[in-house]
Amino acid sequence: MESKDNLRVPGSQKPLVIEKPTDLTTIGGTVSVEINEKKIIVPLGTTILEACKMSGISIPTLCHHEDLCVAGVCRICVVEVEGMRTLQASCAFPITAPMKIKTSTPMVRKARRHIIDLLLSEHYGECYSCFKNGKCELQTLAKEYGVDSYTFGHLDKPKYEIDKSSYSVVRDMSKCILCKRCVRTCIDLQEVGVLEAVNRGEKTHISTFLDKPLSDVICINCGQCINRCPTAALRANDPSDEIWAAIDDPKKHVVIQTAPSPRAAIGEEFGLGAGHSMTRELNTALKRIGFNKVFDTNFTADLTIIEEGTELIIRLYKALVQKEKIALPQFTSCSPGWVKFIEHYYPEYLENLSSAKSPQQMFGALIKTFYAKKAGIDPADVVSVAVMPCSAKKFECNRPEMNSSGYKDVDYGLTTRELARMIREAGINLPEMPKSDFDNPFGEASGAGLIFGATGGVMEAAIRSVVEFVLGKKAEDIFEKANIIPLRGFDGIKYLEIPIGDKVGPVPEIIQHLIPNWDWLKGATLKIAVAHGTANAKKIMDNIKAGGKFSECHFIEFMACPGGCLGGGGQPIPTTPEIRKLRAKAIYAEDESLELRKSHENPHVVQIYKEFLTEGPCGHLSHKLLHTHYTKRGRYIA
Amino acid sequence: MEKKNRKGSVLFSEYKRGEGIKKAITAARENILFEIRESKLKGRGGAGFPTATKWTLVSAASSEEKYVICNADEGEPGTFKDRVLLLEYPELVFDGMVIAGYVLGAKSGILYLRGEYEYMKKPLEDYLESMREDNLLGKNILGKKGFDFEIKIRMGSGAYVCGEETALIESLEGNRGEARNRPPFPVTTGFLGKPTTVNNVETLASVSHIVIKGGEWFRKYGTDKSTGSKLFSVSGDCEKPGVYELPWGTKISELLKLVGAKDTKAVQIGGASGVCVPKSQFERTLAYEDIPTGGSIIIFNEKRNMLNVLRNFMEFFVEESCGQCTPCRIGNVKLLEGVEMIENSKYTFSYINQLKELGRSMQVASKCGLGQSSPNSFISILENFKEEVFSGNGGTNGK
Ligand SMILES: Cc1cc2nc3c(=O)[nH]c(=O)nc-3n(C[C@H](O)[C@H](O)[C@H](O)COP(=O)(O)O)c2cc1C
Ligand code: SF4
Ligand code: SF4
Ligand code: SF4
Ligand code: SF4
Ligand code: FES
């Protein structure tokens, strides 16, 4: 992400082509503009909106979004430019010559007010009965501009039926203001493109292919469109009523697992700035709400590393030593948005996808088998909830194959936003909660599992273990503090080569039954890559298809969401590059503060292989419970 | 394609096919640009942008690929003069495109033909083929080494907004017909992102004459600010509707006399997006400095109901708005509702005044010319025909 090149969007929404000069001291590198009679010098090509921001003037926006290309359609951001007959949309106007701008003239204020009034006239809904109440950009604007009546009327009936067909995303187009943020998100961040505006004039609305329900088109459930929708037109499919009912049912044993990304972001829902981890406060809050047990998804993240890492080693061994035809590179499989993406767009590469389940689903299978047995509870009475940064997790837990415990492995996927609402509903102010620990028998987890939340994190966690396994050295001896910096940050695609050298270590006990030694890896170079946002995934996949450099990789991490899970479709709104950066910082800081930072050193993981998964990683039982299979879906759904 | 014997001093004056091209290629590009600048020719598509300025920008753009697009979408209600030019004077239009290609350094031209003109496609294509035979198109045109130019015809899809130059380009690229953000302008970033000139049929036809007869000759006609002549498509209540070539600066009353209009109450100038002029203003002139127009003239006599007229226009805009920007998408619906309120005598003047204010916001805040001009007739009819419109079945008169 963060690079907006090569977009599929039409020219009416293309980014500005003015290239900003790299050297601002060259002649013509900057322009002097006057905003509300104050002079300011800006780099050539700066938009009026950016220039206003630089001089501390705020301009209202609706269709503009930092992550997306320009639309210039809502027109709320108009300003007056001296010498121009019409007002100009500040978000869409790159400054290339000196100009005088006025941001609050009678004409500007009237036009903005008219635009708000017009939007409200076509908007169905009353704020007090709307889940977006208090967080809605349209509502905020109406308040800022002092709207106290519906000048041009107001809808009293919904215009469209609500589409609740998808497990992940609910579409209520009567609340849509046609800002097209969702359209641009789906096309240029995600390269999916299931949403588009259809018809003209007042009949214009956002639609899917042939107006089909969302469940019947090739939506990957990433929820990125939800995160950028300014109103309540898009939301996640909220299971909290069912969860309350389970909590209130004395016969049910309700457990919840929490993923690292929600913990790094949920504070934002309680008024904290981005980048405050609330892990242990959350444990207490969840108990007070009434969950019987709180588990750490990082535990199964650690398990994922062992299973998926072992799978990789087996694939490499088969390919290099046994000369079997085996699919490489191996792709990660923990992002259900990505999994659905590849099922639709590149079904011929499903063999490359690791068969290891995502941490959420591994946990689900273990809770209703290992845990239920240990705790002496009938798995039929266990209700298993997963709090996730992700809307695709809702679809994932409803996949028919996710029943390996004999029951639905995870009953409900809950987003960060939905959990925050449940906590507020229970009258709890999260930041004030005392801290407490996770419950056993899964207890503690490693920092490796924690960094799964950021793009590159799964790969970093895997590499920490793989280098120790293969080289017999400490990861810290290879990477300073075991931080693998080239895999961090928000470049859309990251690539790294790790030479193995001629010194290899002994094969660790846990996989000794699978391979005899590491000699076959001597002198090899491990090639790995990382991509986040399916637009970037597509670039890698097309490169692989064309036999390019990524086809020579051994292992590639794919995350559907920009920034990885911390930017997931269930995370607090708004989302911006800055906010995602702060969430990542919180996650990496928490990792560095931990003693235990490698999955294979997690004593609970070691224990479960001794006690339960006794055939070791990728053994029979783990195949039954911790691995899965995929569906060739293709681009059309009949 | 047969030439009717039309009379006119500029556009319908004598011109031999190919002569403009022949003369152009013997001259330096700058000299042709100079003549066009001298002529003070302004775009005939409605916006009235100086053609020389547009062409200078495109010719100055450094790009291997450039495009000349002839806008023959002719979607403004009440215009049909581009059809006449294409059917009867194709040499003027296509020579103009080839000259543009020469001046701008472009190798391809596209005629964007209104969907309803499908029937013209075959004859026009035959005409282009005959130009190829005479080496007026193709490689090394008329022996000029290195001057290659081709013209393709592409059909429009029937949306009025696709006549707007950036929406037209979007439509050519296979996208929804929606106006682009400007800047960047087509002169630097047009079709396929390349420098592009989009010109009206009549503009290009004028160029062919200017190349032969010179800018000074052209300037002899019309007024100081509106040089040359204009084709007017006259329709409505008159004896002799049709296409007329008249010099800019002609008074409305003169035109009405010429076309045999009687008992005229109002003239809509510039089509649905133009203004409605009442009798009291018939001494005003058709000129960029007074009432600019792309050429549509619709005449209404005393029997017409102006509210009906307005209703038709507003229904047109509600239908034709591309729907991307807020002021136009919803604003036009509100204006139409206002017309209905007046029809049903269910209005207050304060609300109607609010709608006029809304119209003024639409004029400045809409993304493209469609929304910017759609309130024109609403405002001008309600202001200029106040008595008729609000008397009728008795409004509540502000109560
Ligand atoms: C809604 C709308 C419709 C238009 N339709 C036409 C058209 O049918 N033909 C045309 O030549 N120009 C049309 N224009 C004007 C074009 O955008 C553009 O200004 C013109 O083609 C430029 O050519 P010119 O400089 O030769 O006039 C339209 C503009 C708008 C806003
Ligand atoms: S979407 Fe926003 S404006 Fe609309 S009802 Fe909900 S909170 Fe109110
Ligand atoms: S959930 Fe993702 S794939 Fe589905 S419509 Fe939204 S952005 Fe597109
Ligand atoms: S659904 Fe939301 S994001 Fe999409 S156009 Fe409507 S308001 Fe904008
Ligand atoms: S003014 Fe109308 S036609 Fe033009 S972009 Fe806006 S909605 Fe589309
Ligand atoms: S924010 Fe600029 S047009 Fe919408």
Give the SSE layout.
The complex is a heterodimer of chains A (638) and B (399).
Chain A: E1 30-35, E2 38-43, H1 48-54, E3 78-81, E4 88-89, E5 99-102, H2 106-121, H3 137-144, E6 169-171, H4 181-189, E7 196-198, E8 205-207, H5 224-228, E9 234-236, H6 240-248, E10 253-258, H7 260-265, H8 279-289, E11 293-296, H9 297-320, E12 330-331, H10 336-345, H11 359-375, E13 382-388, H12 392-397, E14 412-415, H13 416-425, H14 447-450, H15 457-471, H16 475-478, E15 493-499, E16 525-532, H17 534-545, E17 555-559, H18 577-593, H19 603-611, H20 620-626
Parallel strand pairs in A: 1-5, 10-11, 10-13, 12-17, 13-14, 16-17
Antiparallel strand pairs in A: 1-2, 3-4, 3-5, 6-9, 7-8, 15-16
Helix pairs in contact in A: 9-11, 9-15
Chain B: H1 19-26, H2 29-39, H3 51-60, E1 67-72, H4 81-88, H5 90-104, E2 108-113, H6 118-133, E3 150-155, H7 165-172, E4 196-200, H8 201-213, H9 215-219, E5 229-236, E6 242-247, H10 252-258, E7 264-269, E8 275-278, E9 296-301, H11 306-320, H12 326-343, H13 349-365, H14 369-373, H15 375-384, H16 386-391
Parallel strand pairs in B: 1-2, 1-4, 2-3, 5-9
Antiparallel strand pairs in B: 5-6, 7-8, 7-9
The structure holds flavin mononucleotide, iron/sulfur cluster (4 copies) and FE2/S2 (inorganic) cluster.
